[in-house]
Amino acid sequence: MIKLSIKHSFQKVNSVILFFGIAFILFFLLPDILYSQNNALKKPNIIIIMADDLGFGDVGFNGNVFIKTPELDKMASEALVFDRFYAAAPICSPTRASVLTGRNAMRQGIFGPHTAGIRTGETTIAEILKEEGYTTGIFGKWHLGWIMPDAEVEDRGFYSPPWHHGFDESFVTKSAMPTWNPTVTPWDMWANKEGEMWTTSFYLQDKVLVKDNLAGDDSRVIMDRVVPFVEKAADRNIPFLACIWLHTPHEPVVAGPAYRAMYAQYSEEKQHYLGAITAMDEQIGRLRKKLTEMGIADDTIIWFVSDNGPSSYPTERGIASAGKFRGSKHTIYEGGIRVPSILEWPGSIAPLRTTFMATTSDMMPTLLSLIDSDYKSKVPLDGIDMTAKLKNPDEERTGYLFFAWQRLYNKINQQAIMDNQFKYLIDGGREELYDLKKDPEESNNIIDKKAEKAKELKSELAKWNKSTFMSREGSDFRY
Length: 479
What we know:
It is a single chain. The protein is an alpha/beta fold. The chain has 2 domains: 43-389, Alkaline Phosphatase, subunit A, CATH 3.40.720.10; 401-475, Arylsulfatase, C-terminal domain (2-Layer Sandwich), CATH 3.30.1120. 33% of the residues lie in helices and 17% in strands. It contains 11 helices and 14 strands. β13 (422-427) and β14 (430-435) form a beta hairpin. The N and C termini lie far apart (83 Å).
């Protein structure tokens, strides 16, 4: 009896030890094990920062010695900088569509701003990343459709908000806002009167009209919404996609007093323009510092780009800069489509300046490749995966790049095709050909001297036009 009692006691003790051992593993060790496994498997975060109407020459890292962009210049020194990076169009909405889908907007029927909205049949990078466990957010200028159907019914465009296209969170405007005190009209402009409420567009946060924290620099207003999104995702150990589509330096471009004072030697108009860019630069630095403080900088890919070249009115007066390039926004020349671009992933993409010819349509397929996505498009893409091209600064692209936008009612129909050396463009009935290696300023039209090359490029452009027509007219969408 005594032996049995002792044996039974030992069994009870062993059971208690086993119980508490299992409990200790479940409540203390298992979460750490799972966190380590999830952390090891966690894919990199992605941030796409897009300026609005920022010219190739409007940043220090592209040679502007007057403007103060220390944060972008520092980022450029630590990342991959593109010398030949192109917006898919010299106008905002078509370029934005290409960033999200890897497809030129001509395939989507988005020929210019305010003329349509992104179709739900298009597959966006946000939708793909949601399927791969990402949380997704967009902050700033949407410009791919209405965001409030009842409050802003217009004679152009249609309702197509970001939450129809894969974004979990949003803090967006339909279109342009003043870059300082964004809800207040700085001077008589469009349908707005100085000092009155800015009525052309407004901010919605997750479908709700925003009324608080809208004073001061607009880039700061936007970044105040980005930072909590990033913090929340990091706290939950979930990879995130953040599209930060800033309004700067699109008109009405306004800078606060402290930023204007940095450029007191210039005209008032130039003070506003340069000051707003410096304020934007400050907020980009704020975000990068925050990523470092949170310990996730090395796990985050940042791609900075502009949606097109600088607006014509400040460019013509020497306020904005396309660098040495001809043209500006609304033109298919280099100044309208060649834009500043930086791709950063610390420890994974080496600092480099590359002459590789790239475009906004390349962003989606390249980013998906960088995160090892299994996504395969079932519809034609205009962009390519550039990951194999990013190590050699002299790598050349095979194939062609295409650019286009239209406003046929006032006879705007601009298209261009380029290979690594030659660029053929057509604007209405005018045809031109340039050798960009010898003449990047596009000062010498050689179409008469290189008739065969022009014929080749014109033929390829015709094939592409047929392909885009079929895409937007039904071959890529369900009916």
